[in-house]
Specification:
eight-stranded mixed β-sheet; 27 strands; 3 helices; mainly beta; globular
Length: about 425
């Protein structure tokens, strides 16, 4: 009897070991990604061995001094320093210890360095740094419920992007100069450059997008951000669209509520132009003239790169006035939203929060989705260069390396397309 029990115990243990071995083999080395072969490796993610956990990614086309292989200046035919343009990539990251950072990469020059982020009072900014974007004149970093802003006039080009690049050469720092309430649990941001030319001073059609991450159970969003689309999908998060301002007197770099809105001057804040309703677990957002790409991920499961038709998203028929959505109050009565309520803008007379009754919500749902790419876990921020969407990953951060199926130490890119 004793031997029989030992045999049964040994069999159970052996079976468990075999099962775990098969599971681990499939988990780490199985054929898991349907579409990752469509992606191209771009450049190594900086800061990983320094404890950086990459979150957001923005880019900027800027001028640099050309140097030879020994680091000496290259002169043009007139004996002057030769210059060229390249794409600079800015990667935001929070650190295991100390201030959060923005790492700088150049297409031609490679790794430039990093800047440590400082609050307006000069203390270390240690926030999540979930997203980073710049149009050159203004730098935006989002975290939790706040949009942090940096502007400067110190560079020869009066341009924060060049100041950031210059500071990164010496691992310097950049201090935020302002901030405003995001009116959502801001997790990512994206600057849309309508003509793709960073040197063009006309920003009439350019936009900044700020959005939030939702996951049931541990990352909630406001209940009024949960809407049912025209297609019947249940969306759970908002993305806000802002217009760009390059006025030197504008501390946010964004158009603000106008004087006709009867709000206190001291609480005049960036005006939301449109709202986009999105699905859950979105980590990054990238818009082109024809498409919208979202980075969807959480934990160890596969990430998804979702691709949508922008022309269909932006049709008024694919939208609804925010004030017309309904909710049920504590007494069981159905009521309208009554306009979008800004968190930090108040009527001068009553002190009540300012409400915008003209804001429309546009639906990003399965009716306008054109493709989905299944790729390795932990995709994060997105940016666009030309027709390619660049994808950042955090799977190679120290805290995740032991657990993920595939540790990705590089940024990858793809030209997203609708399914044939």
């Amino acid at each position: 009897m004793k031997h029989k029990k030992l045999f049964i115990t040994a069999t159970v243990i052996f079976t468990v070991i075999v099962f775990l071995s098969i599971f681990i083999t499939i988990w780490f080395w199985g054929d898991k990604y349907k579409n990752f072969n469509d992606f191209r490796m771009e450049f190594e993610i900086p800061g990983l061995d320094e404890g950086a956990c990459p979150q957001g990614m923005g880019n900027f086309k800027g001028e640099y001094d050309v140097k030879d292989e020994n680091g000496n200046p290259v002169l043009d035919e007139n004996g002057k320093q030769k210059t060229a343009y390249q794409e600079y990539f800015f990667i935001s990251a929070y650190m295991k210890e100390g201030a959060s950072r923005i790492y700088v990469m150049g297409d031609d020059t490679g790794y430039v360095g990093f800047v440590s982020l400082k609050n307006t009072d000069g203390s270390d900014y240690t926030g999540h740094a979930g997203g980073v974007a710049t149009n050159g004149y203004t730098l935006w970093v989002v975290s939790d419920d706040t949009v942090f802003v940096a502007k400067t006039g110190s560079s020869a080009k009066d341009n924060i992007a060049y100041d950031l690049i210059k500071a990164a050469e010496n691992n310097g720092e950049i201090k935020f100069t302002a901030s405003f309430a995001a009116n959502c649990n801001a997790s990512f941001c994206y600057f849309y450059n309508d003509d793709g030319d960073a040197s063009n001073s006309s920003y009439y059609n350019d936009r900044l997008y700020v959005g939030e991450f939702y996951r049931d159970g541990n990352y909630p969003t406001a209940q009024k951000h949960h809407v049912t689309t025209n297609n019947g999908d249940k969306n759970t998060a908002f993305v806000y669209e802002y217009r760009i301002s390059t006025l030197s007197t504008n501390k946010y770099g964004l158009e603000t509520l106008s004087s006709t809105d009867s709000v206190l001057e001291k609480s005049r804040v960036p005006k939301i132009q449109k709202i986009f309703s999105i699905t859950d677990e979105i980590q990054g957002f990238a818009r082109t003239k024809t498409g919208l790409t979202l980075s969807q991920s959480y934990g160890l499961k596969n990430s998804n790169i979702l691709y949508y038709d922008w022309s269909e998203i932006s049709k008024e028929a694919n939208s609804k006035l925010y004030k017309d959505f309904k909710y049920t109050d504590a007494d069981g009565n159905e009521k309208g939203y009554g306009g979008f309520e800004y968190a930090d803008a108040h009527f001068a007379s009553s002190g009540a929060n300012y409400r915008d009754t003209n804001l429309r919500v546009y639906f990003v749902d399965n009716a306008v989705k054109r493709n989905s790419y299944s790729i390795p876990s932990m995709s994060e921020g997105l940016c666009v260069k030309g027709d390619r969407v660049y994808v950042l990953f955090e799977s190679a951060a120290y805290k995740y390396r032991p657990f993920v199926r595939q540790v990705l130490k590089n940024v990858y890119s793809i030209v997203p397309k609708a399914k044939a």
